Amino acid sequence: MKTKAFTLIELMAVITIIVILSGILIAGINDWKDEANYRKTIAYANEVKTKLAGSLIGEWKMDVEQGNFNYLYDSGRLGLKATTEGSVFDRSTDCVEGSACIEASQSIIKFPNFQKFKTICFWAKFDSIYTVDIMSKELDFNIYTFQGIPYFQIYNTSGTSQTFTFSDKKINDLKWHHVCGTINNSTFYGILDGDIIITQTSPVQELGWKTSTYLYVSPAGHDEFFFMDDLVVFEDSLF
Asked: Structural domains in the chain?
């Protein structure tokens, strides 16, 4: 009985098909894992708001009115309206909360004075490798990223600062990430996508002891676009 062997071309064709199918399978698994992690983070963000609902100071979903980029409206209990400065603002529909969020470059959002808060959380998406000032209060606190890694810089009353880094956890991958900072008994907790990344002694008991707050949505001098959604501030700590 004569046995027919595979030719080299047939073997190469089979191997190519296997490689293609494996790539499709791996890509599908990665997409599924990303979607599962995203849904888990959304659930955590909602859990934070539920847990601290009674101490909510303000919630800005970044749903600017169509054609009106001068104001961002607070859906929280105090109705603290924010004002925008800068001409490079747009609406995005790829958002976590609500029907719209901000897409901005080289622009500033000014918030009314809210003092003495212990928890701040927000959603962010961008791809910049530069320093991005997300929220800053002079000699009070600063939330920024450097080469995609989030940092919290906190000042004490004498102006001495302490910086907390989220290790090597980068968020400049053009995917939505949920960032929280909370202080309890002079301990600072940094939370990224629902996981506690930082637990460290803080120089202050709470944030926001200085007047006036500015939200920077993109670094001046760079054209990278920055997306932000659902900024929430609470009087109480998460822990």
From this structure: 36-234 (2.60.120.200)
